[in-house]
Amino acid sequence: MKTLKVGIIGGGLMGREVACAIGRWCALVDFPVRLELTAVCDLVETTREWFRQVPTVRLLTADYHELLRSDVDFVYVAVPHHLHEAVYLDVLRAGKDLFAEKPFGIDLEAARKIRDTARELGRFVRCSSEFPFLPGAQKAWQFLRSAELGHLIEIRSGFWHASDLDPTKPVNWKRQSQFCGAIGVMGDLGMHAVHLPLRLGWRPKRVYAQLQKIYYERPDGKGGMAACDTWDNAQLHCETEIAGTEVPLHLSTKRLAPHEMNTWFIEVLGTERGVRFSTKEPKTVWLFERRKEQVWERYDVGHAASAFPVVTGGIFEAGFSDCFLQMWAAFVAEREGLLGGRFGCATPDEAVASHEIFAAALNSHAERRAVEI
Ligand SMILES: NC(=O)c1ccc[n+]([C@@H]2O[C@H](COP(=O)([O-])OP(=O)(O)OC[C@H]3O[C@@H](n4cnc5c(N)ncnc54)[C@H](O)[C@@H]3O)[C@@H](O)[C@H]2O)c1
Within 10 A of 267 (CB to CB), how many other CB atoms are there? Predict the structure, then answer.
């Protein structure tokens, strides 16, 4: 079996998640490639030390250039957004393929530069967005690809959490524009909301954005207060053209959504059929059909609906770590030319398209008008 060596730059929240996904690789059934995490880079020593428990890790370093000189086949990068452009470009120029984290650069200009450089150098690059890999989301995607929906009425896609409702939560880089980007919450959560619509060809033409800053400062963790200048919530009222008709597409990303805890959802309504899936009910997919009576049918989905078969029981329910593993399987399969008709990770073009939406949303909000994308 072929083995690919993986390096991680940024061993924080997501870097550790990746190490765990690679550790569970044996859950994939008959997958033709094995992964080995061999090198990890993080500036913080205690963060690096955590990776000592992974037996295949041979290099721990604070200098990512040292990691790029090692024999890794591709690199996963999970660092704050202001570093994306420089680190991603260095990975590509070092001759390595890249599994990038969203938002794929701090702004549109950075995203275009990363995409164009990858293209020029012929590197395989994808961007992380794991929720469409949940079995329920996969069922929704299969349905949306094939069902006769009738006239499309509206599309809602979003990602909400409430982690920031507590005003005493200390500030961190995700709440400061210089590190997170002027797009704020859209940079944090927007790729999750746009991946499936973009993959279905539902590219917004126009956007009217409502952006909110709700808390302007937070404890700095040193006894004082620090400015918290990113957008907390963003509601993008878009129009997309489907079969010659303009259809409302609502994209919403919120850090202050009371009672939500990492809720990713999609709802598509047509005159004949519709679909609704939310991680709030992670094993439930709702399908609508206009019959004599109007009916929402409720389906339970387990691992059997995953894109890549796993040893986990087909009726067992899936969660975050499962869709993360499925996304990684899709990245590796596509890099090896083995994706087939399965759903793939977000492409550099899709990442750039997401930034085009977010940049237009910033203009829209500043000018309080709908903006063409
Ligand atoms: N796909 C998802 O669901 C998801 C969830 C959260 C975050 N993210 C994305 O992942 C990325 C990282 O977010 P996080 O939550 O893991 O952040 P984090 O703050 O937990 O981790 C970032 C790590 O990068 C390290 N770092 C900073 N500069 C570095 C450098 N020059 N060299 C090496 N390491 C460096 C930091 O020490 C830290 O450990 C962001 O792009 C974020 O948007 C994705």
Answer: 18
User: Can you give the pTM of this predicted structure?
Assistant: 0.97
CA 64 to centroid of chain Cα atoms: 23
Expressed as residue numbers, the domain containing 149 is: 131-324+346-372
Based on the fold, state whether residues 289 and 235 are members of the same structural domain.
Answer: yes
Tell me the per-residue pLDDT of 183-224, one tens digit each, with 9 for 90 and over. 999 999 999 999 999 999 999 999 999 999 999 999 999 999
SS3 206: strand
**Residues 192 and 320 placed together within one structural domain of the fold:** yes
| pLDDT 10s digits, 165-179 | 999 999 999 999 999
Whose CA is closest to 342, among 145, 84, 80? 145
Ligand 1 pocket: which of 16, 82, 101, 107 to mutate (most atoms <8 Å of CB)?
Answer: 101
Q: What is the dihedral of CA 31, 37, 38, 44, to 10 degrees?
A: 170
Measure 317 CA to ligand 1 centroid, in angstroms. Answer: 28
Residue 333 domain-assigned? no
Same domain as 143, residue 56: no
Q: Is 29 in the pocket of ligand 1 (CB under 6 A)?
A: no
Question: How many domains, in total, are found in the chain?
Answer: 2
